Amino acid sequence: MPGLPTHSSQFAIKETIAMIAHRESWQSAVDSQGNGSRLLIWATISTLSYFSGPSVSESVSSGKANLVEVDNVTFGYDRTRAILKGINMAIPKGKVVAIMGGSGCGKTTLFRLMGGALCPSVGEVRVDGISIGHLSHEELFKIRRKMGMLFQFGALFTDMSVLDNVAFQIREHTLLPESVVRDLSLMKLQAVGLRGAADLMPSELSGGMARRVALARSIALDPMLMMYDEPFAGLDPLSLGVIGQLIRRLNDALGATSIIVTHDVKEALEMVDYVYFMSEGAVVAKGTPDEIRASNEAFVHQFVCGEADGPVPFHFPARSYAEDLFAEAA
User: In this predicted model, what pLDDT tens digit does every residue of 274-310 receive, in sequence order?
Assistant: First the structure.
């Protein structure tokens, strides 16, 4: 299979548009590429660039080395308990970074801060050099156009078909003809192995299938920043491997930046460039996959090896068990 071009060209754009416009040529091109995964990536870049403006890599214009910067962030939903405590992270452009840690340590809350759904109590979150917490509604909507989010529980629109779920963002943010919207949506579904399920409703999908549709929807606009909240949950081993490779290939081909929250240590360490470990709302370890594998830190060793005994507690903080059991009697 020929290598993927590293930058847009007028010839490639015109050729892609012509292929989509003439269905017979398009069909023969897909057939000649087998599963068409590389054609999917390049055709999407070219088509969305043609109709919607600059490519993903060209849209990142701040010149900073890091796309996302979390600077001394503290956050709590109320004043009694801090969910995040003095978080510092730097997510370089073009990299795939994993955030790992036990359930309830603040990983999803951190995503909400990056997306502007929440504002830090202390500190600052910057995306492409822009402080997210100080944006107006219009400015926030504009920068979210450059973000993609795979939600932890899929969050598909239950009254829309699979195809319409994937097409939703394309219809909302572009002026593409409906025939092109359909083709691009089918290309995304092909990438996650569910083109044949395009006409099904979310209620007709298994949990793993719904997650793959949600992934196809999240990459519909080829965003500069992709946030994946548990992308491997509920997937069978075959689908897990394919989706992991797809996330890595899409990131490299589009020049995008990806942040993955996951508990799948083995799969993550094989595909990411850097890892942050969180515990009780703070970053307790960080490093490259090789550094994480070789780490002697007790927390890292316990998490990577899945050991029951170690510094990470299994129980959520509470008063003593005896006090709870005998509180009513007392």
Answer: 999 888 888 988 999 888 888 777 777 777 766 666 6
Report which of residues 160 and 50 the model is more confident about: 160
Distance CA(257)–CA(272), nearest Å, equals 11
- Which tokens belong to 45? 């870049």
- Contact between 85 and 74 under an 8 Å Cβ cutoff? The reply is yes
Per-residue confidence (pLDDT) for residue 276, from 0 to 100 = 93
Split at pLDDT 50, 70, 90, the class of 241 is confident
The answer to whether the beta carbons of residues 164 and 198 sit under 8 Å apart is no
The identity of residue 263, as a single letter, is H
Question: Contact, 217 vs 209, CB < 8 A?
Answer: no
53: left (phi over 0), alpha (psi -120 to 50) or beta: left
* Alpha carbons 86 and 302: distance in angstroms, whole number: 23
Backbone phi, then psi, for 207, in 5-degree steps?
-60, -45
Three-class DSSP category at 30 = helix
Q: Identify the three-state secondary structure at position 261.
A: strand
* CA gyration radius, the chain: 21
Between 171 and 264, the higher pLDDT residue = 171
Q: State how far Cα 142 lies from the chain centre.
A: 18
